[in-house]
Design goal:
The complex is a heterodimer of chains A (305) and B (600). Chain A has 305 residues and is mostly helical. Chain A is 73% helix and 0% strand. Chain A is flat and about 85 Å long. Chain A starts with a helix and ends in a 7-residue tail after the last helix. Chain B is α+β, with helices and mostly antiparallel strands and 600 residues long. Classes of the chains: A mainly alpha (305), B alpha+beta (600). At the A-B interface, α2, α4, α6 and α11 of A face α1, α7 and α13 of B.
Chain lengths: 305, 600
């Protein structure tokens, strides 16, 4: 087990190297400049700005400097927000994204697993069909549709919650719902599928045969195995939630890190683009590793070698 | 000549056309545009559909959303649309930062909120030398917002030098090139100390101009010319803190009507009345809160809910909603000094032929374009400098003359438009620009038989190509920073880095420079007119229209007077708690003439 984790960690190194090199190359290959301006900038001013960020140096030297700083945990300065470093910007936006993600995920797990269990236990009944129909609808409605409809109905017609903004508990409900629903729907379907696989297995039959009440059979025996597909889904899902949602954060004007994926690229904010890519890659790789380890803990059939 | 002063453009603020052929309040897709391709567009359509389906028709009182001030009588919430890059007067070059600077700092002079005339601010009065080149400003005694440090003429000297100093890295350094020696300092040929701005004593400032330009007073109201707290920057430097951080709220010292108390990155800023502002008695609201909501749909929802009292002038209404919101009583529209035009690369065949360029211009049916495509009440124009601007008599060129266009095409050596080699028209990604381009493409096909291909580029790529004049025809917009035709004509001068046409004329440059040396305003405007006539004969640009500003303002928000530069200082704003939606709308009484003039 230890050896497995260690090997996986070592494997991260070449992956990260490829990601850093590729993101640096891609962002620099894009035409345009971080100092693009509609109004002409005097050449000496442009030179001063480029010198300030080191863009006047040859590319290999810039790359060397970037990697040097990266190894010390410094993601560099931002050209779009010149008063802030990329570290500051990500640290500033991460709590909002994290809060939103936690709410969305809690909502998704609560609703998704419950609906999945109901669907599996009451297979082919009205309950099952209702839950799975709801899940299908949930998967099919994108957040850029769900978000505005929620705003319209809950905020503008019922006046229950603010239409957008950030700061209090009331600001997190609508976006959490908008972001979490699609995950809830996937989790419901995965839970149901996983449970149905288990329900006919020998150990469940044994549990039932020795007279365990159905409630205990479900909780103790079925759920553990039934949730395996959900666990493998959760790794990338959590990473994706933690790195923010471009759409939901825009609709509800949440100051998270989601919109940077798009905006920083449009602004040619080189260091911010690379910073976001690096952080995202680390999160995704780490969570995938965690999932694989948890998988082994849940499923005795899996051994690490 | 004074190069590079004034003029700023915005990415898609110029064209906010509403799609034609659309039933009010009902979404319709335009050709080639799918909701899936663009989430924000999908978002808009959804909201619009939902609005319609839920029967959210104009409420009885006829206003969009609530008409009760949610934040009380002492506070206003405005959207500033985006996180500003800088709120440092020397380095700021975006309108989001400019809005904040304009209300946190007081310069030598300020803009009158209705007439736009320059009024006394920190300067109580001024003398102008006979040759019109030297201005002596007499400053009132005042202090910075720290309450103790006096604001002196030395602060202005420091600020103006800092603006033109290339080491500052100011994208708007060229604004300071009106001052003697400014351009030489930016290009590194002179030291900042040589700038033609000096303090005669603590309260007397002498400003020497490169040329006796009459618009200098209007220009000095612009945010680039606000004073900077020299003592604070020195203090930060002494403490080893990066001086660029002086505008963070924990450090910030200002001298204008409002001071910042909180800055939540990409969320909001809070401002309070600055008790040390010299004219604080006339500042009406205690608090202002600015938000940075980028999505115009979100902004609209927040406006409807009353969170925003005024969406601010850095935002624009989503044009999918334009037809819908136009019917509400809190909707208004006025002309804005913003020109929408097409650059022509005059060096790349076949457009190196001036007759072909003229034919293209005359074949644009501008009247039809603003009536059926842009539909925002824009003024169609075939000339660059707007008629009537600061007394300027426009060229009155024909807006549309297809017969003459065909004649010119033949004269250019083309029997028919089919013989003209393919031309590409480039614009940056925006629904509005696309619709204008498609309409003009059709007009050229119909009237001249010329085939034009459209090329749509991402903003940064577009700017890169425009700067290198790597295009045949490209769209552009130009907003005025001060009221003078020179603001528009300057971009065609040979020296201007904003001239993307490759069209250069020593004669044109001579006329502009002559105009700016001319002390008689009538003769000056006549020279400018001659210059424009010369340029339009060469047709390096195809002017299309002068823009308008369409906006929503809550009816209880008072103290906003429509003006062509869209300048609305916060200090005049107030909340009318007595507002009654059932009563007839009250028109804004005229503001006092030149506030502060009585202190002379």
């Amino acid at each position: 087990m230890k050896g497995y984790v260690l090997r996986r960690l070592l494997e991260l190194v070449p992956t990260m190297v490829i990601i850093v090199v590729a993101s640096f190359a891609l962002v620099r290959l894009a035409p345009g400049s971080p100092f693009a301006s509609e109004k002409d900038i005097p050449p000496q001013v442009r030179a001063a700005l480029e010198a300030k960020y080191g863009f006047d140096k040859p590319l290999y030297e810039q790359f060397g400097r970037y990697v040097g700083r990266l190894l010390q945990g410094d993601l560099g300065p931002s050209t779009k927000y010149p008063q802030r470093s990329v570290n500051e910007i990500i640290a500033d936006g991460f709590p909002a994204t994290l809060t939103l993600g936690a709410v969305a995920l809690t909502w998704a797990l609560l609703v998704g697993i419950t609906a999945g269990i109901i669907g599996a236990v009451r297979q082919n009944t009205v309950w099952d069909h209702a839950a799975m129909a709801a899940a299908l609808v949930g998967i099919s409605i994108p957040s850029f549709v769900l978000g505005p409809v929620l705003v319209l109905v809950v905020s503008l017609r019922w006046h229950l919650l603010p239409p957008a903004g950030w700061g209090g508990w009331q600001h997190v409900i609508l976006p959490g719902f908008a972001l979490g629903t699609i995950y809830a729907a996937s989790i419901a379907r995965l839970t149901r599928g996983g449970m149905l696989e288990i329900v006919r297995s020998d150990f469940v039959r044994t549990a039932r045969a020795k007279g365990l009440p159905e409630r205990l059979v479900i909780w103790r025996h079925m759920l553990k195995g039934g949730l395996l597909p959900v666990v493998s889904y959760l790794g990338p899902a959590i990473a994706s939630i933690l790195t923010g949602s471009v759409v939901v954060e825009k609709i509800f004007n949440i100051p998270g890190i989601g919109p940077y994926f798009v905006d920083a690229t449009f602004n040619r904010d080189y260091f911010l683009v690379m910073g976001i890519v690096v952080v995202d890659a680390v999160l995704l790789l780490a969570l995938n590793l965690v999932v694989d380890v948890v998988y082994g803990l849940l499923d005795p059939r899996i051994t690490y070698s | 000549m004074a190069a590079g002063v004034g003029g700023q453009r915005s990415q898609d603020g110029e064209a906010q056309p509403t799609p034609s052929e659309r039933r009010p309040g009902w979404p319709q897709r335009t050709s080639g545009d799918t909701t899936r391709a663009n989430p924000s567009r999908g978002m808009l359509l959804t909201l619009l559909t939902a609005l319609t389906l839920s029967g959210c028709s104009p409420p009885d009182h006829g206003y969009f959303g609530t008409v009760k001030p949610v934040h009380g009588p002492d506070e206003i919430w405005i959207n500033n649309s985006t996180e500003p890059e800088w709120i440092d007067p020397s380095t700021c070059s975006d309108s989001a930062g400019g809005e904040i600077i304009a209300n946190m700092f007081a310069g030598l002079v300020q803009t009158h909120p209705a007439t736009l005339e320059p009024c006394p601010d920190i300067a109580t009065h001024w003398d102008i030398s006979k040759d019109g080149r030297t201005y002596t400003f007499y400053l009132r005694p005042s202090v910075w917002s720290d309450g103790t440090t006096p604001l002196t003429a030395h602060d202005f000297v420091y600020s103006f030098r800092r603006l033109v100093d290339p080491r500052t890295g100011s994208k708007y350094a060229s604004n300071g090139h009106v001052f003697r020696g400014g351009a030489a300092i930016t290009s590194g040929d002179a030291t900042p100390e040589s700038l033609g701005v000096r303090a005669l004593d603590d309260l007397t400032l002498e400003v020497t101009l490169e040329e006796p330009v009459p618009y200098i007073m209007s220009l000095l109201t612009f945010y680039s010319f606000m004073p900077i707290p020299r003592h604070l920057i020195k203090d930060l430097e002494a403490r080893g803190i990066e001086a660029g951080l002086w505008t963070r709220p924990e450090n910030l010292v200002c001298n204008g009507p409002y001071r910042m108390t909180e800055w939540r990155f990409r969320q909001s800023m809070r401002f309070e009345k600055n008790p040390h502002y010299w004219d604080v008695a006339n500042v009406r609201l205690d608090r202002v809160r600015l938000a940075m909501v980028e999505s115009s749909t979100t902004e609209l929802a927040m406006y409807a809910a009353g969170e925003f009292d005024w969406p601010g002038h850095n935002s624009s209404l989503p044009f999918e909603f334009m037809n819908y919101v136009e019917g509400f009583k809190d909707f208004s529209r006025h002309t804005e000094l913003r020109s929408y035009f097409y650059w022509i690369n005059t060096k790349r065949p076949p457009l190196d032929n001036p007759r072909l360029r003229q034919a293209l211009s005359l074949a644009v049916d501008r009247e039809a374009l603003v009536t059926h495509v842009t539909r925002g009440g824009q003024t169609p124009t075939a000339s660059l400098a707007p008629d009537g601007l600061a007394g300027y008599r426009g060229l009155d060129l024909p807006l549309f003359d297809p017969d003459e266009a065909r004649r010119l095409l033949a004269e250019a050596g083309y029997a028919s438009g089919n013989d003209v080699p393919p031309i590409t028209l480039t614009y940056n990604t925006s629904e509005g620009h696309k619709q204008v381009a498609e309409a003009i493409q059709q007009m050229w096909k119909k009237e001249l038989g010329i085939r034009v291909e459209l090329e749509n580029l991402e903003w940064n790529v577009f700017l890169d190509k425009a700067a290198r004049t790597d295009f045949q025809i490209c769209r552009m917009g130009w907003s005025a920073d001060y009221e003078d035709p020179f603001n528009f004509l300057e971009i065609l001068s040979s020296a201007s880095g904003n001239n993307h046409s490759n069209w250069k004329s020593p004669e044109y440059d001579r006329l502009l420079s002559e105009a700016n040396r001319e002390l008689d305003p009538t003769i000056r405007l006549e020279r400018l007119r001659e210059a424009e006539a010369l340029a339009m004969a060469g047709q390096p640009v195809i002017p299309i229209y002068i823009g308008t500003r369409s906006q929503l303002i809550k009816p209880y928000v008072r103290g906003i007077w429509p003006n062509s530069l869209v300048r609305h200082p916060w200090k005049y704003l107030w909340i009318d708690e007595q507002f009654d939606p059932s009563a007839a709308p009250v028109s804004e009484p005229p503001p006092p003439a030149c506030l502060g003039a009585s202190d002379r």
